[in-house]
Write a structure and sequence with these properties.
With 98 residues, this protein is mainly α. 61% of the residues lie in helices and 4% in strands. The protein has one domain: lambda repressor-like DNA-binding domains (434 Repressor (Amino-terminal Domain)), CATH 1.10.260. Strands 1-2 form a two-stranded antiparallel sheet. One of its GO terms (molecular function) is DNA binding.
């Protein structure tokens, strides 16, 4: 913790550690983390293919706005959409539980 004139500031890690003790918060945090992981994976795959969002969307057979929402973690794509992305890029979709 850091102290300023009349305030005590907590480090983000300390606050997050405390919040993660709340099961509701942890569930929401995990869900958002999943969306970010998917967003990064899809964006990296698109960039690996050297495609714009529009060209990638055309290749997959979905709208550019859907690709944009996925890459910006604004939506949780359907499993079918993730499968279509993998299939259209010659990749295999795998799912694991940790």
């Amino acid at each position: 913790m850091k102290k300023t004139a009349n305030h005590t500031l907590k480090d983000f890690g300390d606050v997050l550690y405390e919040e993660m003790k709340d099961n509701n918060f942890k569930a929401l945090f995990d869900r958002e983390s999943f969306k970010l992981d998917v967003a990064n994976a899809v964006r990296e795959l698109r960039e690996e293919q050297h495609l714009s969002q529009q060209k990638f969307a055309d290749k997959v057979g979905i709208s550019k706005s859907t690709i944009n929402r996925i890459e910006n973690a604004q939506t949780e794509p359907k499993l079918e959409t993730l499968y279509d992305i993998a299939e259209s890029t010659g990749k295999k979709l795998t799912i694991s539980y940790e």
